[in-house]
Predict the 3D structure of the following.
Amino acid sequence: MAELIWNAGPVVKLVMLLLVYLSVVSWAIILYKWRLVRRALQQSQAFLDCFWSKRRLDLVAQQLDSFSDSPLTALFREGYQELVRVQPPRKEGEAPTLVLSDSGADNIARALRRSTTQQTQQLEKYLTFLATTGSTAPFIGLFGTVWGIMDSFHGIGQTGSASLAVVAPGISEALIATAIGLLAAIPAVVGYNYFLSKINRLIGQMDTFSQEFLNIVQHMARRA
C-alpha cells in the first residue's frame, strides 16, 4: 500500500493528502462532539431531576454550577435572570411576592428563545464539516482515480504496450484514492447522523423546558 501511494502521480498524491486531512479533522470533530453531546445528555437529565425535585426557583439557581454542560442550564439561567429583572422594586418590610405582567412574560419568552437559538448553534457547530466531508470525499477520491487512470492510459499510449503487467500498477495506484475517499466519508456520515439525532433530542428538551418554565412562572405569579 505504501509503495502504491508513493508511486502515484502528483495529482493523485495531492488528492490523497486532501482526503487524509478531511479524515483526520473529521475524527477530531467526532471525538469532540461525542464527549460534548454525551455530557450534555447526562447533565440535562440530572438537571431536570433537580428542577422537578425542588419547589423554589432560587434553590434551583444555586445548583446550576453542577450542570454547566447542559443546555437546559443556560435556558434556566437566562429565564430566571429575566424573571428577577422584571420584578418591581419592593418597599422596605414588604413580603416578597412574584409579579409577572404580560410584557414581563413576553420578555422571559424572548430570553428563552434567544438562549435556545444560541445553544442550538453551539450544539450544531462543526456538523457542517462532517456533512461536507461525507458528501464530497467519495467524489474527491473518484476524481483522483479518474485522473490516475487517465495518466495510466496516457502512459500506455506512449509505450504502445497494453499488457496487464503495464496496466495493472497504474490502475491500482489510482483506485487507492477512491478507497481513501470512502474511508474518510463513511465515519463522517455515520457521525453526522448520530450527532444530529442526539442534538435533535436536546433541542426537543429545550423547547419543552422553555414552555414548562414559562407556564410554571405564570402559575406562580397568578397564585401569588
Observations:
- The helical segments are 2-7, 10-53, 57-61, 71-85, 102-123, 127-159, 164-223.
